[in-house]
# Entry
Amino acid sequence: MTRPIVWAIGTVVMTVISATAAGDRIAAKFGLTMPQAQFAGAPRSQSGNRIEVSADLAGHFVVHPTLDGRRLRMLVDTGASLVILSHEDAQMLGLSLGRHGYTARVSTANGVVSAAPVRFAEVKIGDIAVRGVDGLVMPPGKLGTSLLGMSFLKRLAGFEIAQGRLILKG
# Structure
């Protein structure tokens, strides 16, 4: 009797998580900003220039920074050298990349890929803002979730991961 209930609750939770990600993408496509959600992965507390982010159910840290004033859903990735956008997220930000823009060759877990270098005037999470952040845009279909990499993280006053929380220090 409890298995169907557990299964139903799991289905509802996954639907809510999926709907939240889809809602962010739809709002960004139409230039709308959405209020900061309060769920696992969203900044939980801010005191000064310190932001805590809880890991999601898969152990990932999902944040919703603004890049040049437009909000995106991104996965924090300390293994990524740069901020890396999916082609689809780049389009939602209004970045126009012709096929000639993919001039950088980068090594990924799936091999070498051409990517388009970009520079963001500002990347901001809560009260923490970093200006002049280098990044890359991947070709269509090569990246499912945009990554907040070290070109942003290394310019913070610090960051740490402890007890299932990511702490960003501005």
About this structure: The chain has one domain: 2-169. The helical segments are 2-29, 87-93, 150-153.
